[in-house]
Fold this protein.
Amino acid sequence: MTERRVYFLVGLAIAVIAAAIWVSSQRHLSRDVDIGNKLFPDLKLGEIREIDVTRGSAKRVVTLEIREDAWTVAEREHYPADAAKVRALALGMADLRIVEEKTSDPKNYAALAVEDLAEPAAGGAQVDLKSATGIASLIIGRNSGGHANFVRKPGNARSLLAAPQVFAEPEPKNWLHRPIVDVAAERVQEARVTTARVSYVLTRKDRSQANFALASPPKGKVLAGEMAGNAAGTVLSGLELDDVRKQDAARWNAVADHAELRTFDGWVIGVEGLIEGDQHWIRLSSRYDDALAKAFPPPAPAAAAKDSKPLPDVSKDATDFAARASAWEYEVPKYKYDALFKPLDELVKKP
């Protein structure tokens, strides 16, 4: 082989390698350019007015809407939503960045749970963020490593791995604002309870009395221990719902469980209870009793304490709570329900 021919073959090889590198760079250019880019760079969180979550068979399962400047859950008669949770979803969508490009073959979508939501067995969920100027939509599939999701924009063949991880909760009740009321146990003066046609009263004569006593106990009935009646006083402390529904008076025609919790500062909260299968429902009433408040005047405030807090406006609290709670029935945890509507025989010493 001549020297001239060797140079020719070397030059040809270099040209082929250079061409291959160029073709390869063009094939992957879009991936390299997209890595790290936001999926929704123009999304403006302040303009979002509705968020929809859709599952298989294109069935919408959650509708979050703004009503009177507050997020609500449409599937629960527009009961207030957990605003922090809604914001976390919207922020997560706005912050999503491309980590890696995945399959563009529809045959492989199911493995990532990013198939079209029209399919009944679709494993992912579609989130639509709606504003007056448009809709930002994304199919959210399986999570990856606890920090990212496989995703795909509807109508786009390309699936992606994107971070941070976003979870599209498909259960409406899990979007609800859970707190109902929070009345500290030390504020409760008395619990009047009727359950299974037996009535009893647990009471404290003043704020200094640590434990509830059984008022006018039936003959031979004595509390099983000095703290046996205290659970009733804790029911309104950090009370949260598991679910909610609009009040229907017909459901409460034959209710056997009733209670009235009275505070030293005059707040009277009525509770009716209803058990349906493994669900425990209550409905609430609220009023202010000025005579009750005057019967237990608050202790004199400490002299000019820097950390002293102003006394609550109990009358306003009672009125505001009545307005919020009067239209609703709340499903509450079983342990809270049982703490209030405990049969008298479970509180007293056994014969």
In short: The radius of gyration is 31 Å. Residues 18-33 have pLDDT under 50 and may be disordered. The chain has seven helices and 19 strands.
